[in-house]
């Protein structure tokens, strides 16, 4: 009689154990199913936004750049988002191949860029840059290229290099001491010098991908009819067109960047990056919004 009474209890225990095991297996199978991946929560940006838009834009940019060793990014100066976008692109690219990020900085800044990348810690790296006169500008003469966001982009590359990635920086703009004379003599001379510097890097470093971040006008592969430009001007992008670059325009649905127009520097609304219609770019990337970058406004020495 005692054994007969135990049988229902044993059956109940076995049934519950099997149910628990089955539930565990089903839960494991759900996370292991092909094509299903755990989605990390969005990373908060410095201004409280969702960085997934940056991730998506970087994915789009790399897809449009596939098969091109030279990638020209048409920058809107003085934003928070674009340095983050470029950082993501360099991070992903450097997992597969060596990459050089070419920045619209005077070539005289090359030693400080090299020193910053080689520095052992972030504080030393930043000091290598900010001690240079180029970073010392007031708001009324600030074209947006000198920002904390750009400093953080450079720091991101330094961190990648410390992790063993083959990343480098290239300063390709003309020195400021000759900028005014070039501008008055020939509107295309600066673009010619910038293109020559990037071209030489492509020739000297045939196994590296070159990502050139430049003002969106310099990135034009041809002057479109909707752009009022000086007659006969030839952009850096046009001079590099024979290298078959991917030239990508970056825009946003709303927001602002920091630009200089008619010798006045200020926050200016930006527009969306619509699909190129006249071959001026090979593709376009549009972010949901752009915000004015955190400008570096160190006093002149």
Automatic annotation (TrEMBL):
Residues 1-32 form the signal peptide. Keywords: Lipoprotein, Signal. Gene3D superfamilies: 3.40.50.11550. This is ChaN family lipoprotein.
